[in-house]
Amino acid sequence: MDTEMINDKVSQGIMLISAEKYDAAKLLLEDIIAEAPRTMEAYIHLGNACANLGKYDEAIESFKKALLVDPNYVEAYFSIGSIYVLMNEKVKAIEFYNKAEENGFISWYIVIDPSNWSSTIYFHDVYHNGDSNNTLECTGILFDAVINCKR
Fold first, then answer.
1. Domain boundaries, position 28
2. What pTM, to 2 d.p., does this model score?
3. Is residue 81 part of a domain?
4. What is the mean pLDDT of each run of 10 residues along the chain (151 residues)?
């Protein structure tokens, strides 16, 4: 598969995710990876599709594979941390949020409810603007927001 075809298929996967057709996106992205296993973008979007399907272990595995292809894609660390938040594994979430920051990732936010942008948590801003002084407290804020959103 040539680069243009790979990019087209990844774009199709992104469109399927946007249309909330996560199963179809997952299958397409897995096919891309089977044919072109060094396609970092396919791993990232596969992780997103898996996360939306509630397949958190598969999502984490996909984000970790993206890091094997491109160790500089630090957003994958943040994505893994966010999955651990959803899994209620605070210690692991903190570990990966710290890895993200240690590797230069500074634009941290999570949209708790896409229909309500005021629910967005700017994790990095809470951490660095004096509202909190440690990752544990910030992650606690994030966990509280996720729990409140699920109610």
1. 1-73
2. 0.74
3. no
4. 91 93 96 96 94 94 96 88 84 83 66 43 42 46 46 35
